Amino acid sequence: MLEIVLATRNRDKVREIEKILNSINARLLSLDDFPGCPKVVEDGETLEANAKKKALVVSQYTKKFSLAEDTGLEVEALRGAPGVHSARFAGDNVTYKDNNRKLLKLMEKFSLGERRARFRCVAALAKPDGEVVTCEGVCEGIIAFEMKGKSGFGYDPLFLLPEYGKTFAELGEEMKNKISHRARALGKIKEIIDNL
């Protein structure tokens, strides 16, 4: 059976990716299975650059297929910020809440009509021979005026989907994993994996 190493140490992402890809014909491994794997510095200028870099480094180290993704929240009123810096928006070694608080502070002066945002996810699948394919998923929404909901992680309590009238954190894991940016990107990757 094909083995694919998930190139992330973020346990929330690992759990979500495993649930989204639960029906693929492959065995998913985590970096816990490869404790010596080098830490990848995400210094790319784009989500695609970071996803490719992570996938390639892990694939070259493990000699297996590797799946990486990088996700960014792009807020129109902030000219696309936090974007590629979403995880470190409030600084290094910060919590999800720290990032959410900073975003809320920056959005204070904006009305409902000025709060458009999108989550973008780029997934990269690296093969042991060095070939990499990428797929992108996008989910449109708006930034809520306050954090709502207990499910999910990251900016989920602030990312409001107008068609549902709920944030990702209120929608719950099962629904989020059907409609999210990550689900859309990984759905395309799944088709590639199924055809390997």
Any idea what the CATH architecture is? Alpha-Beta Complex
* Backbone shape: globular
Strand content: 15-25%
- Terminal CA distance reads 11 Å
On the 0-100 scale, what is the average pLDDT?
96
Helical segment count: 6
CATH class: Alpha Beta
Topology:
Layout: E1 3-6, H1 11-20, E2 27-29, H2 47-62, E3 65-75, E4 82-83, H3 96-107, E5 116-126, E6 132-143, E7 159-161, E8 166-167, H4 168-171, H5 173-179, H6 181-194
List keywords for this structure.
8 strands; alpha+beta; 24% strand; Maf protein; 196 residues; eight-stranded mixed sheet; 6 helices
What does this protein structure show overall?
It is built from 6 helices and 8 strands. The chain has 196 residues and is α+β, with helices and mostly antiparallel strands. The chain has one domain: Maf protein (Alpha-Beta Complex), CATH 3.90.950. Strands 1, 2, 3, 4, 5, 6, 7 and 8 form an 8-stranded mixed β-sheet that branches. The N and C termini lie close together (11 Å).
